[in-house]
Amino acid sequence: xxxxxxxxxxxxxxxxxxxxxxxxxxxxxxxxxxxxxxxxxxxxxxxxxxxxxxxxxxxxxxxxxxxxxxxxxxxxxxxxxxxxxxxxxxxxxxxxxxxxxxxxxxxxx
Length: 109
Description:
Elements (H helix, E strand, L loop, with lengths): L27 H14 L7 H14 L4 H8 L4 H30 L1
Helix pairs in contact: 2-4, 3-4
């Protein structure tokens, strides 16, 4: 609304969640600069923007989000891609689930 007639989001890039002040694509340099600024303000050590993607996937998987859903969120065209990258986490969670099931069955005996 602030950009008024200068808004170029309509019919441009589509339904972007994050845009420039006028509705266009964000420039990578701007995103990196903003990330550095936010990390510094939060007293968090610098990290690459792409690392946030891995963090999100790891947190979702650790919280029990199905691999299929994480794959779609990340925009992978094949679930195998997600499995190849994060399969070790799935294996760890499966081992944890097996240990919990073992404990449940022993408790019922």
